[in-house]
Structures are given as structure tokens and as C-alpha cells.
Amino acid sequence: MIMQVHDELVFEVHKSELDKVKKFIETKMVNALPLKVPVKVDIGVGDNWLDAH
Questions:
Q1: In the predicted model, is pLDDT for residue 48 greater than 90?
Q2: Distance separating alpha carbons of residues 11 and 36, to the nearest angstrom
Q3: Are 11 and 20 spatial neighbours (Cβ–Cβ below 8 Å)?
Q4: What was the pLDDT predicted at 24?
Q5: Would you state the pLDDT for residue 16?
Q6: Which residues are CB-contacts of 1 (< 8 A; sequence separation ≥ 6)?
Q7: DSSP secondary structure of 1-53
Q8: Model confidence at 42: pLDDT above 90
Q9: Which residues pair with 15 in a beta bridge?
Q10: Cα separation, 31 vs 10, whole angstroms
């Protein structure tokens, strides 16, 4: 993780590891705390923060 922008986390990941890291991050975020409501995680990919949206 290289930074946080409000409610977003920004990671720098090598392209060959992208699928594995996306799955890992989503799993960790969804299961971070036991909540009664579901946690929705959206993951965008791009060469920079703007392109990832």
C-alpha cells in the first residue's frame, strides 16, 4: 500500500501478481471486522489513481 485517499487504498502491484493480490486485498477488507451488514469492495486498476476509476 502506498497511500490512502479518503475511503480508498492505493497499492502498487506488479502486473504478474495482480489477480492474486486483488483477491487477497478484497478478502482482507471484507472480513476485517465482524459486522452485521455486508462490506462491499470495489477494485479498480490503472497506471495511476485517475485511470483506476
A1: no
A2: 28
A3: no
A4: 97
A5: 97
A6: 9, 10, 11
A7: --EEETTEEE----GGGHHHHHHHHHHHHHTSS--SSPPP------SSTTTT-
A8: yes
A9: none
A10: 19
Q: Rounded to two decimals, what is the model's pTM?
A: 0.81
> In one letter, which amino acid is 29?
M
Instruction: Report pLDDT digits (tens) over 9-41.
Output: 999 999 999 999 999 999 999 999 999 999 999
Q: Are 8 and 35 in contact (CB under 8 A)?
A: no
Query: What gap in Å lies between CA 35 and CA 22, rounded to an integer?
Result: 22
Place of cell 462491499: 40
The number of residues in the chain equals 53
